[in-house]
Task: structure prediction
Amino acid sequence: MGSLVSCAAAAQTPTATAGGASGAVTTASAFTVTTRHKLVLVGAGESGKSTLFKKLLMLYGQSLSEAERLTYRPNVYRNVIDAISMLCRCADADIRPENASARALVDAHAEVATRAGLAGATLPADVAEATARLWADPAVCGAFTARKAELPDSAKWFLDQVKHIASEGYVPSAEDVARARTRTTGQTEQEFAAGGQSFHVVDLGGQMFERKTWQKNLPEADVVLFMVSLNDYTRPSRDDPWRTQLHESIDLFGELVHADALRTSTKPLMVFLNKRDLFAASLRTTPLSACFPEFDDSADAHTSASASASASASAATGAKSADVSTAVVPSTPAMSTTTMASAADARVDAAIAHVKSLFTARAQDTSVRVHVHAISATDDECVRRLVGSVTAVVVAGV
Ligand SMILES: Nc1nc2c(ncn2[C@@H]2O[C@H](COP(=O)(O)OP(=O)(O)OP(=O)(O)O)[C@@H](O)[C@H]2O)c(=O)[nH]1
Ligand SMILES: [Mg+2]
Result:
């Protein structure tokens, strides 16, 4: 699946069969496919479009060879150094004096590597050791927990395994590749086959200055996939301290459904409320009402009323109860673990239902057919279910 490293070139020629594309198309031909459905991935920056794109190719294309995974090593190194540098800047004077030398080492490595244009080229063992010490420092941990730094959501994934990443012979796993953060510029496209259908998926950059590519791709899309980071309810907007990036994502969706290419069309538009895993974890400490004051977070409002809705919603989205099984739910001696887990699930699902209603409300005066699912793009099983839902939509044509 050379596509993951070379697909930018394929962007000019969507039917190119080089690299991974050929593998996916070969699979498609086994089903005697006649139609190729174009899926266009849009949504705000860091909502998880590329993560889903990579997962789709990993699950439905050919698995990545060791050589291909190795090409992601500099990216992983860079993710580690960027994350620890940002956290140290936020923790700053509170870092323990005994970790001052570790910080100096990390800073020097980051600075020299950046100046030499070699960020990500190496991750020496002593720098990895220093990173691990800093990651264990209470001030750095505190800065992470308090979300003081604008870190990619994969920061913890990589910092937790920094010594392994720096070890000799380290080859990024498929999961490391999926989670390695790189901002998408322009567009990346690829083909895959699933459920007897052939798909052409286009991953577009979501940062503000990248969105010009959306207009060009939307008219040709058979299904528009709009990604949202549910966890953005805890991320303040960069422009307005009273709003969060989730508010901005809702506005962006409103603009999208009213764009000329969509407003009067009956194109299916699937909204993926992504990062359900992080959302469930964040709800333990930050109520959704902190972002949407009209939402009632109280346990009583959701546990009994939405328990059955929760079960069906979880089944439909592939949401895992295990994600929230340790959630802090007001416990009584009579409350069993299962009850606690389902109560926590019900609260997460109620919060998701509220966010979903905010998105669907924006499309009410359009003819766009909106389908909303809560997902975790990092979860293979969830991505498989998502593909089932996409297939059902293209087959039904609604
Ligand atoms: N825990 C968790 N992390 C996720 C999930 N989906 C994406 N991420 C992480 O979120 C970060 C951003 O994901 P990307 O896929 O790069 O986001 P994007 O939408 O392509 O961003 P742009 O290219 O800037 O538009 C990465 O570090 C991913 O590993 C998820 O479901 N759960
Ligand atoms: Mg991207």
In short: The CA atoms of residues 315 and 385 lie 10 Å apart. The chain is about 50% helix and 10% strand. The chain has two domains: 3-64+186-396, 73-171. The first helix runs from residue 3 to 10.
